[in-house]
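Try it yourself: sequence plus 2-acetamido-2-deoxy-beta-D-glucopyranose, in.
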Amino acid sequence: MAVPTARRRFLRLALVAIIFLISYLLLGPTDYIAAKTQWHNLKYIPSSYDWGKRQQVHPVDMSAMARLPEGTPRQLSRIQHKFSADDLSSSHSKTRGARRDAVKRAAMKSWKAYREYAWGQDEVAPQSLVGVDSFAGWGATLVDSLDTLWIMGLRREFYEAVRHVGRIDWNNATSPYCSLFETNIRYLGGLLSAYDLSQEKILLDKAVELGDMLYAGFDTLNHMPANSFNFEQAKEGKLVADKHESSAAAGTLSLEFTRLSQLTGDPKYYNAIAGVTRALERTQDSTNLPGMWPVFIDLWSGFRATGTDFSLGASSDSAYEYLSKMYALLGGLEPSYEKLHTKAMAAAKKHLLFRPMLPEMFPGTAPDILFSGTALSNGQIVELQPEVQHLGCFAGGMFALGGRLFNQEDHVRIGEQLARGCAWAYHAFPTGIMPEVSEVIPCEKKRDGVDGNDDFPRCAWNESRWKAHGEHVVRFPKGFVAVRGPEYHLRPEAIESIFILYRITGKADLLDVAWRMFESIKEATETRHAYSAISDVQTTGRTTKIDSMESFWIAETLKYFYLIFSEPDLISLDDYVFNTEAHPLRIPKPADSRVKGDT
Ligand SMILES: *[C@@H]1O[C@H](CO)[C@@H](O)[C@H](O)[C@H]1NC(C)=O
Ligand SMILES: *[C@@H]1O[C@H](CO)[C@@H](O)[C@H](O)[C@H]1NC(C)=O
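Structure, out:
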């Protein structure tokens, strides 16, 4: 009996060896090992400090706790264009797949550089190929890219990254503090979105750990968030909300904290951001530009909004972006967000938006575009500064999305004019990319506040009016009078709005607009191993790279380029809201709550 056993054992061993050899030959050495470890060895290792167990030093009043609105989510207005078979089988669909693949190749190249030279660190420097830690060193690019990897179908890369996420220790940072805002939009937003897409539990576990940490940012005397999040002070409840805080930092926590409450059933995150929302409501009509909030707000004194600068650009942008998206994420059950959005957009339309004076071949042939500038107001006099910020280019998407959500068709049109404005500015510069900050000349604008098609009347090109800004203007493309920030940081806002407008209007020419933008960016920013920010978009010929590739390049810019060239039902705007770092969060649907109610 012993003899056959030994032979059988030998045969079995030989068989295993042959199977191993065949798998090895078929899959290649890395794939074989990677597939095993990545798919089957995902492990959740808790952080070395549990913020969830930390006692509040300034406890919230449980009896006044804000809870997620109850009830079945409402059927929201349809956002996306109803794409017909014709739309999709047009000549565009033939080039579409090739364009999408080109974007995917750019993403894979960027990811490969990060994986090889900066794995686990925040960013890879795309020229010097070293890791850089600019966001506390937890792997900003890794977490920020998760959902892009998933959406592009890069599952092996996705699970390899998830494996790393399972080991992140939020208690082990490379700096003594982090930015509440940046940590929220990049890390928390990235984890929640990747969880919503993949249902991989480790991602939610890590999101809860991080959410519990960021929740301590609200443990201040007045429960306003402290953006400068010093870890040791936070543990002791000694954080202080700032006297001079950007409105974006205060207003850009709502989507992520709300989604976390929805996914965990714990209302504390939602309650925290509801305090900021109440302050936005309280102050909206009494600022120096009623309807909007100043770029900087005094959070230390509760919420004093007495500043004089108003903008949809840097430091306020996403505070406005989140209002309509909160309405959608809450299934239309919280009317205050509609009111906040509607009033803010009316004020922005009246005081910030303008039509630029444009060069034209023949009178009246200039493109139909708008920009969003900065308004200075002391409560009596409002002065428009016709500044054009790349960061402000998201506004086209915001107007169009809100227009669809709240049935304001004129806002969809404004959204398109704004989105095409940024596309025009891209095309105007030698690299095919618009600068970070520039200035144009506004046409005179009617200020009677009457809605209608002539809110932004056209004006004829006047060469002497342009040249009156100084002899130096001839260095700029016609129409521009200043370029204050000539660089391009691989930012997403322009393609973001073009993407949203395409999904909303179905206009196929936007695909060509997007492709032209992508080709220009690729040409101007590509390095041997990745892509880099450049110092000047006015360069003809070889651009100067500034050795920086922030995490939003893969997380946002390439994701929007990929999505516009994909089937329109991939991450539909009717199913998801994007946080300001382009992380899609799932909108609860009427059907979801029925399912929950049944079980
Ligand atoms: C903390 O993180 C660094 C990398 O940033 C790592 O080398 C170190 O081992 C970590 N320490 C602990 C205790 O996890
Ligand atoms: C063009 O601009 C110049 C300088 O601002 C002004 O004096 C002139 O009247 C303008 N011409 C027209 C036709 O508006």
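One thing you can check immediately is this: Residues 462, 464-465, 468 surround 2-acetamido-2-deoxy-beta-D-glucopyranose (ligand 2) (CB under 6 Å).
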